[in-house]
Hints:
This protein is α/β, with parallel strands linked by helices. The protein contains 7 helices and 16 strands. It has helices spanning about 15-20, 35-55, 65-70, 90-100, 135-155, 200-205, 245-260; strands at about 5, 30, 55-60, 75-80, 105-110, 125-130, 155-160, 165-170, 175-180, 180-185, 190-195, 210-215, 215-220, 225, 230-235, 240. The chain has a 6-stranded mixed sheet, sandwiched between helices. A 5-stranded antiparallel sheet has the order 11-10-9-13-12. A hairpin with a 4-residue loop joins strand 7 and strand 8.
Amino acid sequence: MGHYINNEHVCGVMPSCIERGTILLERLVIVFDTDYARASTVVSVLEGHCASYGLGLLRVDGVRELGEILAKHDVGAVFCDVRSRVSGRDVVEAIRRMIPPGSREQVVYLGVSARNLFVLECGDYAFLLPPNAKAHEIAYALDKALKEHDTRLEKPIVIKTKQRIRKVQPGRVSFAESVLRKVRIHVGGETVEVYGKLSDLKRELPSSFVQCHKSYVVNMGFIKELSQEYVLLSSGERIPVSQKRRKEMREAFLAFVGRSI
Length: 261
């Protein structure tokens, strides 16, 4: 089971917000290690840095739970120690399946020695630190990982239809909606319709996109007004806000506006 730092809060946000899979946190940083003492040492180094970035910090000791968190949240970096009870190679292979090369989530491997240099096979997204890594080296790895994460968030998404394949900058997408088995993506004054799931598209979009309704994902940069029942976009379009997501939507938008000022 994951452990929320400080037991009650993750950098000032109640853990229940994360358990419900909401988008109140811009990003999470995860420390993945089955050894509590080792994980606590890394957590103590990262805690202040994560707070300064406005990030949530979470300790996880199971591969399955790590996968569930990656599927539901925007994760900036995963700090993984390969000196576990399980084979370090098995841990690396499990993470590679969940975070393949090219993903926006960045992996920092700790405890890399001459005996487990197999982690070098992990690709260019991995950061490698020795068993005796200093606090400043861990903090530096976090800075580098988050910068790379941000760079990859700015990359265009690829939209495939029967007729063509096109690249679209996420910043140009105002909202997307699910209609039966299709997803309609609104880009400028154009609507692109593709077969697929809204949840899959949302995973490709940066954290400025929030799900305000089970059938709608909206870019908060285009929101002109937010009420309990709907979102008014700068284009004049109204997007419904479900009752279930009202509180979460409001808090997410206020956090977004605060970061934009």
